[in-house]
Write a structure and sequence with these properties.
Strand 1, helix 1 and strand 2 form a beta-alpha-beta unit. By secondary structure, the chain is an alpha/beta fold. Helix content is about 15%, strand content about 30%. The protein has a three-stranded parallel beta sheet, covered by helices on one side.
């Protein structure tokens, strides 16, 4: 099982990628880093609402396959 990271899942490309990963059985976790919520409740999603210019403050959560 894999973990994915998406930066900006509220945008067009990120939203499409999120939908594909939600239906992909190979991924059990999807970490979302963005300024605002995607407003989707799903067991695979871990959402981090952050200042995108401060990614270094979230380095411990920024691990994936």
């Amino acid at each position: 099982m894999k973990t994915a990271i998406i930066l900006g899942a509220t945008g067009l490309t990120g939203g499409i990628l999120l939908q594909k990963l939600l239906h992909d059985h190979r991924y059990h976790k999807i970490k979302l880093f963005s300024r605002r919520s995607v407003d989707i409740s799903h067991p695979k999603i871990e959402e981090y609402l952050i200042d995108m210019l401060q990614l270094n403050n979230h380095s411990k959560n920024f691990t994936a396959d």
